Amino acid sequence: MTQPGRVARRRPLLVTWLSVGVLTLAVFNLGGWLAGLNLPDLPFSVPRAYLLARNALWAGWGVLSALFAYQGRRSAMGLLRVGGLVVLSWYWADRLWLARSEYTRNRWPLAALFTALAVTAVAVVLSRPAVRDYFQEKHS
User: Fold this and answer.
1) Domain that holds residue 117
2) Total number of domains constituting the chain
3) How many beta carbons lie within 10 A of that of residue 98, not counting itself?
4) Which residue did the predictor score with more confidence, 92 or 43?
């Protein structure tokens, strides 16, 4: 609903797609958290609690970011930028320092390519004038 005297603006399609993409990542992390509850007794490079906490934090960030972006809250831009960079840095720190499989070590160029594509896509979406204008308005 809009306040009297305010013109309702439509959500840009790019914001909707960005919200869906971030929510998809959140769902995958929630799945990782649920799978972490039933991990077999195998030797892990990190404590089981770390895996659960990481996936829960990433899923929480994703849900909040997607929801705030979809609703057009002003805080969504910062949450997507800063939170996204924190999650991205954390992902690469895990991948470089904690991953012990040969597969993970051999596939880092592909992961770097997909990371660069994702970061570029989000940066382009957030830089679009319609998207910036959408987040500058007050939405209830």
Assistant:
1) 13-136
2) 1
3) 13
4) 92
